[in-house]
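Per reviewer request, we include the raw input and output of the structure prediction for the construct analysed in the revised manuscript.
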Amino acid sequence: MKYKRILLKLSGESLMGDKQFGIDNLRLNIYASQIKEIHDLGIEVAIVIGGGNIFRGVQAEEGGMDRTHGDYMGMLATMINSMALQAALESAGIHTRLQSAIEMREIAEPYVRRKAMRHLEKGRVVIFGAGTGNPFFTTDSAASLRAIEINADVILKGTRVDGIYTADPEKDPTATKYDVISFDDAYNQGLKVMDMTAFTLCKENDLPIIVFDMDTPGNLLRLLEGHAVGTIVRN
């Protein structure tokens, strides 16, 4: 296997499946089975999941709510998704630990870097909830930060598209897919891979990002087996 320790970043919206809101249990279980496939091979897996299927701080701000207040509500939404994913993984027979950047002792451990790394070494899947614990930071930024802190080999950004294109493939039929692109080229071309804070963290710490289609069963395993899946962004 090319990577020993990965951080998988999932969007909250991806959990909706065909629903307009909330969590699709079928999609949740498909994700859990894919994660189990790679976990069973001995790969150490950490996960960050967004909360956009439940609540987004940016939406709150548009409605007149204070952005800080809205962002904290968004962090709570990520915890709901994290707990749902934890339940699905444990139903699949995987030992997990949920760590929260905001203290919630009844449902999650506080985030402690050394404990997180120890859990990974013991073969537990670690889910990082509540973003960074700070407003004005996205879950992409949380994923980048946690990946760097735990010395992950790569961030795998699971999306609904199969990689990064020269333009939006749903709007431009002539758009072509990149197999590999540098951080600088992605930035200069204005390609939306992650938000700038997350992107800069990865670039400065030489942490590659692979954008791939998580909704196709088997893609996660194929990617880690070394097949050409998705687009890799690196220095």
